[in-house]
Amino acid sequence: MDVATIARLQFATTASIHFLFVALSLGLVVFVIAMETAYVVTGNAVFERMTKFWGRLYVVNYGVGIIGGIVVELQFALNWSNLTKGFGDAFGGALALETLTAFFVESALLGAWIFGWGVLGRKTHLALIWLVGVSAYVSALWILAANAFLQHPVGAPDTTGRYFAGFGTLLRNPNLWDAFLHVVFASLIVGSTFVAGVSAWHILKRTGEAAFFRRSLRMAVAVLPVGTLATVHWGMLQLVVIEDTQPMKLAVLETIGTVETIGTVEMSGTGEYAPPEWIGVAYQVMLRTGFGLVLLSVVLVALLFRDWIVRLRVPLHVLVAAIPIPFAVVVAGWLVREVGRQPWTVYGLLTTEQAVTSMAPGAVLAAFLATAGVMLGLATAGYWLIARFARRGPEDNAFGVPLGQAEPAGPPDTAVI
């Protein structure tokens, strides 16, 4: 294989694995925020237990995801130096803000939330998790702003020939907002399905926390239609933008066949081009699975009536089996978006062959094997830990603070010296 192919495989592998953790973090933090808000408002200890249980799973997932994010970020300098040289001034600022938000602001706030149990007041502690959630979505916005530039470059070259785009220009990119909202609600599907599936597993196993997990199950099932319907809505709106900015991608998505049956498109004098035809299959899988999840979510909400979702038992088995489905769908969607712009790295301006760093194939292959091994190891360890804590169920002394001691006891006694 040539250098470009190996570099693309490396980025696809690392980014896909990293995106799995990102999607769960964005979806799960919404439930943690809702549960702690309910606890602070009502004072009901059940919501405190729910916050601790699902919050611990969120923390484990976030910790593994943030390590994987470092691996993904390093590839821009390692394998794609020609991209950063020519267009780093345009999308580098968005990447920098994403890094600062996720690796510093969000991490610091989450650390304060973790160690703030029993130290900070309830409202202050609640404010921290709200800020964690806001910073998570701000981080996602900036990474998608950088990606939207690659999909549809905005701005203009300066006098030296380097491309530049201000933050306002990046945020007005037509390829940004529909994609961002699509990712937001797709992540909500991931989080809802995860919470519902884990809750269903405990109910089926009769682990002794039936009331606890029935409440979590009902909350997740009630939220699931919001995620499915909104994801389909914003996904469909993206087709309008793609038609204007990436017509060949749309042609391949809507036609499963040969490029000759679709035709070719000329753009800026660069000649014929077409993305790989298999993205049409990935798109159909994503689309049909998405509609299937819409139908499933509506049926599950109906089954909440008189607790039929638990009494029938079959829906619980379906929810457990459905946990990995949204993860697979978000990866399929990422592949459609990214591979669909090939052979461009910066659409219409810089091809993938031009963007890749000039290195020996052996060196690139070694880096690929090393980074893929790290990411697979992180994913294995991360999901093993998540599964372990999920099976153990709620623990009242999670985060080192017994149940009911979320409020600080007061200032420590002082001694007279």
Describe the structure.
There is one protein chain. The protein is an all-alpha fold and 417 residues long. The protein has one domain. 75% of the residues lie in helices and 2% in strands. The protein contains 15 helices and four strands. The strands form two sheets. The chain has a two-stranded antiparallel ribbon. A two-stranded antiparallel sheet has the order 3-4. A hairpin with a 3-residue loop joins β3 and β4 (350-351). The longest helix is centred in the N-terminal third of the chain and has 40 residues, at 3-42. It is globular, with a radius of gyration of 23 Å. It starts with a helix and ends in a 25-residue tail after the last helix. Residues 257-271 and 412-417 have low confidence and may be disordered.
Supply the key terms.
single chain, 417 residues, mainly alpha, two-stranded antiparallel ribbon, globular, disordered C terminus
